[in-house]
Design brief:
Elements lengths: L8 E6 L6 H7 L25 H11 L4 E6 L1
Antiparallel strand pairs: 1-2
């Protein structure tokens, strides 16, 4: 589904690894996956930026799990 972004939100994309998609859809992302200051601890929660969906598609070529579209506050 494509949604237009308001000025208050941004869409990012995630190509989850095998076995992770259903868990993310069911439970969402834990706050620990979004550290406030880089470097990101343990390399957690990689996303493709809103203008880089093609990067998520490239990862999905390997994972074959689909792409999650995540709309978050800016």
């Amino acid at each position: 589904m494509t949604r237009s972004n308001s000025t208050q939100t941004v869409t990012i994309y995630k190509a989850p690894q095998p076995g992770l998609a259903q868990k993310l859809l069911r439970d969402g992302f834990p706050p620990a996956d979004f550290p406030n200051n880089p470097p990101y601890e343990n390399g957690k929660c990689y996303f493709a930026a809103s203008d880089s969906r093609s990067l998520a598609e490239e990862y999905n070529n390997n994972y074959q799990q689909g792409i999650l579209e995540v709309i978050i506050d800016k």
